[in-house]
Amino acid sequence: MTVNFSKTAVIGAGAMGRGIAQIAAQAGSEVLLLDSFEGAAGRGRDAILAQWRKLQEKGKLDAAQLEALSGRVHVAGSMQDLASCDLVIEAIVEDIEVKRALFRDIEAVVSPSATLVSNTSSLSVTAIATALKHQERMAGFHFFNPVPLMKVVEVVAGFKTDPEVCRKLAGYATQMGHSPVQAKDTPGFIVNHAGRGYGTEALRIAGESVADFATIDRILKDQAGFRLGPFELLDLTALDVSHPVMESIYRQYYEEPRYRPSVITAQRLAAGALGRKSGEGFYRYPDGAMQQVA
Ligand code: NAI
């Protein structure tokens, strides 16, 4: 089987970029990781190799497979190294102007036939694409956290996206072992639109002192069957990602009251209590294990 994109760049080696790079390599692509933060791409590569070593320990990969996969993931020194990539996946900070500036820089180095995608959770793919000369080659390619486990991928067509680009991306998602779903370019697409109420209503319940965070999480898991409670999910996603997403969807829907963000997350974001990644959020994470805050 020929992989749809033989050389994939992933820009942004954070929680999402690492996971995307991992499954892109597993699909058979050569992968380049680029990050503007010193050392972050190298740490991203190390984290991916650690995931594969765990799979080897569980007997899911043999030594030859591990070696082949490891040889496929490289750290890019600069944007110039991306010149021969046929796909560039952006997974940087959720800020439209920063993303638009990045896409302008990407287009200046890649070939005119390269496909460019954003992993944005909430921003308009159409609006990001206007930074490009060739808007038809740009789409949304939206993964979920943790990427190797969460199998849905939203393929989002912007106003000018060539349908062939979406078809090729959907095929690539399948080659990654994931399930593509076509989504329209509306704020939050499908999952983050439908899922709005889960976080915002739970924050209102907590804000009105109806119940505390841990009780709300426990009840929604035990009674409603969710795998993660809303506050556990906010901790996993991290507030520096999810609060801007809440604000962005609220603004894009013309301040629809149902989507109003919460002062609880705004204050916690300001305090740096981001979730798992900062060691404290709605729960504490000493040595990675979750602990309830008294
Ligand atoms: P993160 O904060 O873990 O990682 C972002 C990375 O991008 C960092 O390593 C940072 O150094 C790098 N970066 C920032 N600006 C850059 C630039 N101009 N050039 C190159 N690198 C740059 O964030 P995370 O969670 O990986 O999110 C990334 C994107 O994925 C956001 O658009 C977010 O909305 C989206 N997303 C996040 C999900 C989540 O659950 N965390 C789920 C689905 C999408």
Automatic annotation (TrEMBL):
Residues 8-186 form the 3-hydroxyacyl-CoA dehydrogenase NAD binding domain. Residues 188-285 form the 3-hydroxyacyl-CoA dehydrogenase C-terminal domain. Keywords: Oxidoreductase. The keyword Oxidoreductase applies. The keyword Oxidoreductase applies. This is 3-hydroxyacyl-CoA dehydrogenase. It comes from Variovorax ureilyticus. The chain holds residues 1 to 294 of 506 of the full protein.
